Amino acid sequence: MTDILVPTLGESVTTATVARWLKKAGEAVAADEPVVELETDKVTVEVNAPSAGTIESIAANEGAEVEVGAVLGTLGAAGAAPATKPAEAPKPAAQAPAPAAAAPKVEEPKPMTGPVSRPGGGAAPMHAPLPSAAKMMEERGITAGDIGPGSAKDGRIAKGDVIAFLNRPAPEQAKPAAPKAPRALEGGEERVKMTRLRITIARRLKEAQNNAAMLTTFNEVDMGNAMALRAEYKDAFEKKHGVKLGFMSFFVKACVAALQEFPAVNAEIEGDEIVYKNFVHMGIAVGGPSGLVVPVLRNAHLMSFAEVEKSIGDFGKRVRDGQLKLEEMAGGSFTITNGGIYGSLMSTPILNPPQSGILGMHAIKERPMAVGGKVEIRPMMYIALSYDHRIVDGKEAVSFLVRVKEGVEDARRLLLGL
User: Fold this and answer.
1) pLDDT at position 124, please?
2) pTM of the complete model
3) How far is Cα 57 from Cα 69, in angstroms, rounded to an integer?
4) How many other CB atoms are found less than 10 A from the CB of residue 386?
5) How many Å apart are CA 258 and CA 401, to the nearest integer?
6) Quick one: which of 349, 382, 377 has its CA closest to 364?
7) I need a surface site. Which of 182, 268, 319, 339 has the fewest CB within 10 A?
8) Is the separation of the CB atoms in 285 and 347 below 8 Å?
C-alpha cells in the first residue's frame, strides 16, 4: 500500500484545497497518471499516482484543506478491492506538523550591464508562525502578539501578515466589524464559493490599494513605426525564429531600458528599507481559465526580441492548459498587463505587491493627430504606469513613461541603448 501525499507546492505555499478527485476508490490508475487536483492560492496542481495500482481509499475529500506532506489517499496493488470505509482524516490536534515547503530552485539573477543610479497588540495566534514569517519577525523584533492571528491555517502567521503589519499605518486601524450573515437569495440567484485563487487575487489587490501610495500617470504611443517594422520583417522573423513578432516584445525591451534608467520603479519596499534590483524579472499578466496569473520572464534584460516572444507564447499556452509551474510566477520585479487584447481603451492597473510599478497597455485606435503642423490619422495607444508614490517620485514616473514611449515609437533607440 502506497500513500498519495500532498507535494511541495512552491515558494511560501504550505496549504492547498482538494479541488477535485479525478479517480474514485476502486479505480485502477497507471504510474504518474493524475488522480487528484489541488487548488492553491496561486494555481491548480495535479497530483499524480506514485505507482500503478488501484485507489484503495480517499483520506481527504473535495473541499478539504490539506498541508504539504499530508496523506490524500492510499494506493493498493492492481486489482485490490477498495476499503469498505473511507479513511478518516486525521484530527488537527493529533496531526504531526507538516514539513515546511521546500523553496523552489530559482535561477540566480544576472546583473544588468547598463548603469544603475541610486537616488539620494492583538490576540496570540493559535499556532507558531510559519518558518518564513518567524524569520522575518525575529529580524524585525516583532512578536506574535504584535500581529495577532494570521491568515494561514489555524491562525498561523504567514510572511504576508508580517509584511502587512510592517506597512500598517500608525495608529493602528480599528478592527473591522464582524461580517453580516448572508442575505436570503432571491429567485434566479445562486451562491458559489470563491476559489482560493480568486480569494487570493481579491486579497492581494486590496492589500495593494491599502498599503501602497498608488498613483497612475498616462501617455500615448504612436504605433505607426512599430507596425511598419513588424509588417516589414514579420515573415523573415517567423522563418528564422519560429515565432511571430508581436508588440509585447517592443514594450518589454522598452521597459527594460527605462527601468535601467529609473531603478526606483524596479525596486520594492521592505520595512523601512528600499531593495534595489540589478536585474529585471518581468511579470507578464496572462488571463487563464481560473483567473489572472503573472508568469515571470527571468533576466528579461538579457533576452532578445525572439526570446521574449517565445517565452510569452509558451506561458500563454501553458496557462490555458493549467501546466504553469508555481516557481515561474515568483520573484517578479515589474509587471506589464495588456488590456488592449480585450478592447480596453484606458485603465489604471493595480500594483502587483511587493512591486512598485506596473505598465498597462491598451487597444490601438486610429485617431487624428497633429504631425508637423498637419492633421494625420495615426494608430495610437494609451499607456498607463501605476506606481508606488512612496519610493517613486512623480518626475521619475513621468520620465519613465516617456522613455517607454520613445523606445516603442523608435526601436532604433533600443538597439543603440538610447
Assistant:
1) 41
2) 0.62
3) 17
4) 25
5) 8
6) 382
7) 182
8) no
Dihedral angle over CA of 98, 204, 61, 67, nearest 10 = 0
CB distance 73 to 67 below 8 Å? no
Least confident of 65-74, 145-154, 271-280, 389-398: 145-154
Beta bridge mates, 338: 361
Q: Taking 50 as the threshold, does the pLDDT of residue 120 lie above it?
A: no
The Cα-based distances of 274 to 11, 204, 206, 296, 320 in angstroms read 22, 20, 22, 21, 36
Domains of the chain and any CATH numbers: 2-76 (2.40.50.100), 121-166 (4.10.320), 213-416 (3.30.559.10)
Which set of grid coordinates corresponds to residue 192? 458559489
Q: Which three cell numbers stand for residue 110?
A: 544576472
Give the model confidence (pLDDT) of 271-294 as tens digits: 889 999 999 999 998 877 766 788
CB 156 within 8 A of CB 129: yes
Nearest to 41 by CA among 18, 7, 16, 65: 16
Q: Name residues whose C-beta falls within 8 Å of residue 162's C-beta, 6 or more positions apart in sequence.
A: 129, 133, 136, 137, 140, 142, 147
For range 73-102, the mean pLDDT: 54
For residue 12, report the phi and psi dihedrals to the nearest 5 degrees. 65, 10
